[in-house]
Amino acid sequence: MGEAGVALADDVNAASQNPAGLSQMKGQQFSFMHQAYVVDSAVEHAAYGLQAMNNLGLALSLDYLNFGTINKYTRDA
Question: Among 1, 31, 36, 50, which is most exposed with the fewest C-beta within 10 angstroms?
Answer without folding.
Answer: 1
